Amino acid sequence: MKQIGIIGVGHLGSAILQGLIFSQYVTPQDVFISGGTSGKTQQIAKELDCQFCLTNRAVVEQTDIIILAVIPRILPSVLEEIKPYLSGNQMIISTAASFTMAQIQEILTSHQAIIRAIPNIPSRVCQGMTAISPAKQVTNKQLEIVKQLFMAIGKIAIVDESKLDISSTIAGCSPAYVALFIEALADAGVLAGLTREEAYLMSKQAVLGSASVLLAQSMLPAELKDGVCSPGGTTIRGIAQLEKYGLRNAVIEAVKASAKIKA
């Protein structure tokens, strides 16, 4: 069992932490965390019974795998801070979007094993999606360890680094898009007479169940849609309205905006 360090336990860092502990991939006592000065990190450590470290250096000196779950803006300063205490056999996993492997390597000025991994918030309940891109010096054994780590909290995809930005948009931003869809679906239910509690339950479970079927049966979305739509039926009439008001185009434009795609 590897000892894991997490520097930065904001929304994403805490989601990874909770997912790893919930999955029992690691025991809480084998996880060392640090981050911020608000006292939130210490509170999380107490709640989850993991190891709280006052400094990032303390995390580095006690762990084999170091997950840097900090925002891109402060990643350079964190890398500079921990650089003197890194050993050659430790792995660095960065979750920072848009901060490239080359930029990380330039700061560390070493042959450190570096992996970029972009998980999402559903990792908290082991339903995450993580895009992973390893540096060239990462061995097959090291990559396998990282794959197993993130598979404990959801699905993974090994992608070229050039695809990480769009992967982080599709996996990372989409929970907010889906939440908006669920909210709209529930609003329609309330408009038709359901209680808010009833409408939210039905909407959440319908979305979860639909995704589960698609994954479990390796089904194309169009297959599920066509299976639900009977000729002249209620569902196809609803689909026609979604197309009329541009749901498909709205989603594409949302992804383009989040990913800053100009095409």
Task: Give the low-confidence spans.
Answer: none
Count of DSSP E strands?
Answer: 8
Number of helices: 11
The percent range for strand residues is 5-15%
Coarse shape: elongated
Distance between the terminal alpha carbons, to the nearest Å? Answer: 46 Å
Percentage of helical residues?
40-55%
**Main beta sheet strand tally, sense and closure:** 8 strands, mixed
As laid out across the biggest beta sheet, the strand order is: 3-2-1-4-5-6-7-8
Structural class: alpha/beta
CA radius of gyration:
21 Å
- Average the pLDDT over all residues and give the rounded result: 95
Order of H and E elements: EHEHEHEHEHEEHEHHHHH
Short description:
It is built from eleven helices and eight strands. The chain has 263 residues and is an alpha/beta fold.
Describe the structure in your own words.
The chain is α/β, with parallel strands linked by helices and 263 residues long. It has an 8-stranded mixed β-sheet with strand order 3-2-1-4-5-6-7-8, with helices on both faces. β7 (128-134), α6 (140-151) and β8 (154-158) form a beta-alpha-beta unit. 52% of the residues lie in helices and 14% in strands. It is elongated. The chain has helices spanning 11-22, 40-48, 56-61, 75-82, 101-108, 140-151, 164-191, 196-216, 221-228, 234-244, 247-259, and strands at 4-7, 31-34, 51-52, 65-68, 91-94, 113-118, 128-134, 154-158. It has 11 helices and 8 strands.
